[in-house]
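Quick one:
INPUT:
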C-alpha cells in the first residue's frame, strides 16, 4: 500500500476570497515519490486535527506566509509580512503533533519555519532588516532557478539523500530560522550564515528545507531524491 501523506493547507482571505489551498508542485512531488497526497485544512478543533493525523503516515508542511511572531514570543517587527492565524492553526499545530507522535514530517520554506517554531525555536522576522550582510534570499527570477549556494552538513540525512554537500538552491523567503529549536540542528547554511535546513536529532524523520525543491525538480532531478527519501522514511516508520 502506498503511504498516505498529509499536506497542510494554506489559507487565503484577500480579494474577497476565503479558502484553503495547497501548492500543485508539492502535491505532484509527493505523488511522484510514491505517496498518496491528502490535504489537511484547518478544522478549527484540535481533536479533528488529531484525527486527521491519525489518518496519515507522514506530513508535509508547504511554503507560504509568515508565521505569527506571537507563537515564538515576539511582537511584530516592521519588516514582517502577511500572517494568518487560520494557517498557523493548521500547520504549526500539525507540526507539533507530528513531532509528539514521531510522525515523519518534511517542512518546506514556511513549513520549515513552522516546524522550528512548533519545536520551540525562533525566527528572523525579516532578513533584510535583521541579518547584517545578508544575501538576497527573495530572488527575482524563474521559480526553478537556483540563486544561491548552500553548504550541507556531511553527516546529515539531507546530504545523504541528495548525495552532495554543496548545492545551489532557489530562494523565496524573507524570514529564516534564528534560534534552532531544542532537539534540532542546522544542517545547511547559505554563505551569509542564514540557516537553510534543519533536522531533528531524536526523530525518525523531521527535516526542514528553506528552499523549494518541488519547484526545481523538473529541471534538477536531484531534488526529487529529497521527496523519495522522505517517502522511504514514511514507509519505514509505517512498517514498525
Ligand atoms: Mn535562501
Amino acid at each position: 500500500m502506498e503511504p498516505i501523506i498529509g499536506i497542510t493547507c494554506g489559507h487565503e482571505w484577500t480579494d474577497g476570497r476565503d479558502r484553503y489551498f495547497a501548492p500543485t508542485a508539492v502535491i505532484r512531488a509527493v505523488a511522484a515519490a510514491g505517496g498518496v497526497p491528502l490535504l489537511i485544512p484547518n478544522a478549527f478543533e484540535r481533536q479533528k486535527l488529531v484525527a486527521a493525523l491519525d489518518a496519515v503516515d507522514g506530513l508535509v508542511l508547504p511554503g507560504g506566509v509568515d508565521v505569527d511572531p506571537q507563537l515564538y514570543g515576539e511582537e511584530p517587527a516592521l519588516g514582517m509580512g502577511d500572517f494568518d492565524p487560520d494557517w498557523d492553526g493548521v500547520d504549526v499545530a500539525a507540526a507539533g503533533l507530528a513531532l509528539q507522535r514521531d510522525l515523519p514530517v518534511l517542512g518546506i520554506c514556511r513549513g520549515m519555519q513552522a516546524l522550528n517554531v512548533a519545536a520551540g525555536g525562533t525566527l528572523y522576522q525579516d532578513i533584510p532588516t535583521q541579518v547584517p550582510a545578508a544575501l538576497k534570499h527573495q530572488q527575482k527570477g524563474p521559480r526553478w532557478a537556483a540563486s544561491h549556494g548552500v553548504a550541507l552538513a556531511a553527516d546529515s540525512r539531507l546530504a545523504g539523500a541528495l548525495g552532495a554537500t554543496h548545492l545551489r538552491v532557489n530562494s523565496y523567503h524573507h524570514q529564516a530560522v534564528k534560534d534552532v529549536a531544542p532537539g534540532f540542528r542546522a544542517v545547511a547554511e547559505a554563505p551569509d550564515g542564514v540557516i537553510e535546513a534543519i533536522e531533528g536529532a531524536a526523530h525518525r524523520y523531521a527535516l526542514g528545507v528553506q528552499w523549494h525543491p518541488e519547484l526545481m525538480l523538473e529541471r534538477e532531478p536531484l531534488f526529487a531524491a529529497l521527496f523519495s527519501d522522505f517517502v522511504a522514511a514514511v514507509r519505514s516508520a509505517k512498517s514498525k
